[in-house]
Amino acid sequence: MTSAAPESVTSPARIAWGLPDALLCWMAGYLGAIVASGLVFALVRTSELNAKLLFGVLLPAQQFTVILALFYVSHLKGQRSLAADFGFVIRLRDAKALVVGATLEIVLTLALMPILQLDPDAKHQQLLTDLEEHRDIGTVVLFCIGAVILAPVVEELLFRGILLRALLRKVQPATAVLVSSMIFALVHLVGDPNTVPFLPALAGLGAVLAVVALRSGNLSTSIFIHAGFNLTTTIFFLTFGS
């Protein structure tokens, strides 16, 4: 005769993660980038961070550290599953949402034009400036992998996964969508003041992604929308430049 294992062995008694853990995961990404930069400078013995190191080492280190932190939070305080805790699902049938992301990018860019015309000296975000200065095939490929594949997955997990779901325990859905979209926009401002003119578009994108994630109950569609948005931005920038 065998006895069933206690429930506490297979799953936590309750989901205990919340807003502080979302902040922890975000900060962990920057710690990962700092550690990676220290290793790069020590091993490569360079005092200058070029675009290939930025797109190929530092940004992936930041993104993968965020994912590791999310795994840690899920294992320690959740259901030990990114899908169960944060809605991380990728379904190929949702790839049609790439078109939605591309359309959203065009609409928000057109809506942003009057704001940009008020500041003729407005600059691109720093990552795009770095890309513009280094257009060799290796740098472009590394940038596309980070911007079109890794960034949508990591940012959806962070902002529409743990952050939005943590907010939903504290406030009404409309407020959670608004707050998460504003945080999403403002986080892009950290370390890159050139983002200021683009904050309305980023907040708009964040709001749409939050609503989609809220209605679908998972991150699959929002990941593809985000990827379509970033892909369209990248194509337009590589085609037309400044």
Give a brief rundown of this model.
The chain is built from 10 helices and no strands. It has helices spanning 7-10, 19-44, 51-77, 82-86, 97-118, 126-133, 137-168, 173-187, 199-216, 220-240.
What secondary-structure arrangement, pairings included, does this model have?
Elements: H1 7-10, H2 19-44, H3 51-77, H4 82-86, H5 97-118, H6 126-133, H7 137-168, H8 173-187, H9 199-216, H10 220-240
Helix pairs in contact: 2-3, 2-7, 3-7, 5-9, 5-10, 7-8, 7-9, 7-10, 8-9, 9-10
Describe the model:
There is one protein chain. By secondary structure, the protein is an all-alpha fold. The protein has one domain. 74% of the residues lie in helices and 0% in strands. It contains ten helices and no strands. The chain has helices at 7-10, 19-44, 51-77, 82-86, 97-118, 126-133, 137-168, 173-187, 199-216, 220-240. The termini are far apart. Residues 1-12 have low confidence and may be disordered.
